[in-house]
Amino acid sequence: MQDIKRYKKGALIFTGGIILNLLLTLLLFAGARGITAGTVEKEKEVVGTAKQQGIYIGQQLFDNFSKYFKGSDSDELREEIPEILASQNSYDALKYDLSLSFNIPSKTIAGELYLHAMSYSDTLSYIYVNLYDNLKVNSVSYSILDKHVTPDEDIRYAGAFSTASYSQNKNYLIVELNEKLQREKEFLIKIDYSGTPKRLGFDSFSFKEIHGNTCIYNLSEPNYGPTWWPSKDLPDDKALYSMRLRVPRGFKGVSNGELVDTVENDDNTTSFNWKTNFPIASYLVSLVVSKFSYWEQTYTSVDGSKTMPVTYFVFPGDSAKSVTDWSETPEMISFLAKTFGEYPFIDEKYGMVQFGWTSGAMEHQTITSMGYFLITGDNRFDNVVLHELAHQWFGDAVTLKDWKNIWLNEGFATFSEALWREHKNGKADYFEAMKNFDGGYFKGTVYAPDGFIDDFAIYSTIYNKGGWVLHMLRGVMGDSIFFSAMREYYDRYKYSNAETSQLVEVCEELYGAKLDWFFDEWVYSGKGRPTYEYTWKFEDFQEQKGSGNYSVWVDIKQTQKDDLDLYKMPLKITVVTKDGDKEFTVFNDKTEQLSQFVVNSEPTNVIIDKDGWVLKKVKNKKK
Prior knowledge:
A hairpin with a 2-residue loop joins strand 25 (about 570-575) and strand 26 (about 580-590). The two termini are about 50 Å apart. The protein folds into four domains: about 1-75; about 80-290, Immunoglobulin-like (Sandwich), CATH 2.60.40.1730; about 395-525, Neutral Protease Domain 2 (Neutral Protease, domain 2, Orthogonal Bundle); about 530-620, Immunoglobulin-like. With about 625 residues, it is an alpha+beta fold. The chain has twelve helices and 29 strands.
């Protein structure tokens, strides 16, 4: 996910983010890549954009000040209750089938959800389902199955249903079964519900007017899906999924996976029926409903054996610009497939759909939701397109085990942005990208961040420092082993979940040595970076004055005021001489370390980590 708009820790911090977003928007559209001075048409576009953004910001300020003065805590993340979590982990969600219809004037929904699951316990009799109390449950029924239901079967007709007792409490739906389930017993829960979805977090569910048309959409990360649909809302329980969207005639309903069929109904509505063939985490479930223009391209697999549609759903006024901005997507897919392994959902699709955000995007599985300010017709947001696409590998196919590992999603996607620049423009542009990811300060640890992307410092640590971790790991391991390890990690955990320790395990296997020191200082424990203060001197060989050979001594001290006194890292030392640069590598594993090098031309300078393989600060003094 990328977002330059919404980082919340209560209403006041969010308001600050909105104000900053206004400044960023003005800079973005008035800056060097924004308008061409004197171009009337472009100036009108900027004015229109600023007006739209101003209206949007005004709405958000009003909404969030209202929440603040009411003392609302609705933006707080859900805290898992251990007893309930243990109960939920006593069953495995296998498949969901969700039918939704929409009342646009009242901004309400009506849903019918089927959950197919299997018991992990011999004592399971209460099924806890995540569902916010703003949604009214009209009825619940269940079926205990006598046979295995295959993924291809329609679970709506897989069993005979009986009425179930249920209650709603603390944003859980608690379904009481009339018997205790046996281990590995499959069962179905049917939930009929309706109401007004809550709008929490990053915009969990919204009805919005954009360009004069209604847009209905969600963004459930990290755990706001239950504001609009019932589920076992834990990222490590991925399941198959069907979505049936009944929308007003003239609208399109867009979701994950492949479109099975489109049905014109007698009541002036159209049903768009989607399904996934690969398991999906609940926070990656997506719907967007609006009046869209549609176009598509084709991606061909790396080995040439398969083709896949690359689909685009765009607000009509942005359709022509989207062709310019998005036409490079198949090439991006091919690049990432060659780098990490074949696109994971090649039997379904990849697509992008505009939704109600302005300047952000979200990597919903097979269908990225893109903010409507991100289509400009000049490719200025190619980095966002690439970032969200990379999540299909890291985030969607390989999904984090829990939110402590969010950097595995965002670090990989950010790092992939730099790899794309290297692919297009060369190594120098890659290093420039990494340099741009360093804002000079990162808050907290990369692993288990203190909060969930709710302020700029945390955001920067998860995304940018996370990307730097992979960049530095590449420098430590070397290209051949590093990229082999990344492909192995992807292949091993594709369609399942992973955590940081499993990435470490794969890297150590292929590297052939321990890397715990690296991950401890950069991911688990370290909150800063080394400061290298160094001095250097040289002289002719003592034995042969005037021989043309010189001894160079470099004294490096780590002087950072940080939680770690020592960051162990390999350092490239460049000795600049009158006849050119000479490069050496030392493994810096002491707070003060003296190294000697021999060169055959008079030295004029010494540079520590010239290219920028290490996240650092440097102070240089020549003796």
